Amino acid sequence: MYVRALSLNDFRSYADVSLDLTPGVTAFVGSNGTGKTNLVEAVGYLAGLTSHRVAQDAPLVRSGAERAVVRGTVVRDGRDSVIEIEITPGRANRARLNGSPVPRPREVLGVLRTVLFAPEDLAIVKGDPAHRRGFLDELLVARSPRFAAVHSDYERVLKQRNALLKSAGMQRRAGAELPTLDVWDAHLATAGAAVLAGRHELVAALRPLVDKSYSAVSHGGGPARIDYRSDLAEDLAESTDRELLATALLAALAGSRSRELDRGVTLVGPHRDDLLLSLGELPARGYASHGESWSFALALRLAAYDLLCGDGGEPVLILDDVFAELDDLRRRSLADLVAPAEQVLVTAAVAGDVPAQLTGARWDVTAGEVHRVR
Length: 374
Fold this sequence. Notes:
Layout: E1 2-11, E2 14-20, E3 24-29, H1 36-48, E4 68-76, E5 79-87, E6 94-97, E7 100-101, E8 114-117, H2 122-126, H3 129-143, H4 147-173, H5 182-218, E9 224-229, H6 242-263, E10 274-279, E11 282-283, H7 284-287, H8 290-311, E12 316-320, H9 328-338, E13 343-348, E14 361-366, E15 369-372
Parallel strand pairs: 3-13, 3-14, 8-12, 12-13
Antiparallel strand pairs: 1-2, 1-4, 4-5, 5-6, 6-7, 9-10, 10-11, 14-15
Helix pairs in contact: 3-5, 4-5, 4-6, 5-6, 5-8
């Protein structure tokens, strides 16, 4: 799988740009602020409908423009597919596949798959649980695009239940009769069980790959381990039985209802869970050195890449300003590991930041303009 062509209209700093890309390594080289990351961000957006830099779509539209359009031609098994996403802040985005509109943008998920390394990945190791949950859920969507609907259903039910909790809490304090939460508990348990089952299966599949990748990138360090943590019973930590998980979630919701009414928020469910990262017997967060934390972040992405390759269809690898963050040993190790990939897109402030193992096409980026060098 590789991206053969990319065009942007009013996306970030680009009014209009079109690039012809090839398999192998492509490096985008330019000083900070010139727009090189915008190019690989657009590729990532075509794959997952999200940005690795911002949570909202508004910053993706060029200042003064009403909307942005990202278009890419993806080659998979010798066949071309054209994805087009129209991003309009304040309105629902629109998508086309091979020129035909699709009912929902998420129906293009799976056409292109990417694994993106970026300096922001350090937050997966050092940051709060939301970063680690996001890593799992993004990978679940990449593996199985239908999970996007599963996750969306859970978020919708959670939002509605939280609104009801706030209303019910105020009524309880006023001495009024409380509306029942039983129906919403059942909805949340069902949707939450689907999310948990997916995450549990994913963690079990990733665990050996993470340890292998950590050893490779750190030259024998570790062992590195990942485990899923929730408020459910320990014997359900790896269960993929949705019925058992839904029953356990219902019980947990019942046990926390009084506290939830006091606080007006749902205190139990996948939105509160965490992915535990361990080096040896110690948690990586708070104990790992800066280099070890970087190695763990790289290991998670490399494990995701291996997992997606095993599912069929090698993803495009994107390395956004990563090499400048690494010492020489980790830089060489990462370059050796990713060099065989079908397509690798690299951004760097200076050409010297791109390891010698990653030779290939180069584009110079200056003030929103892109020029092919070789």
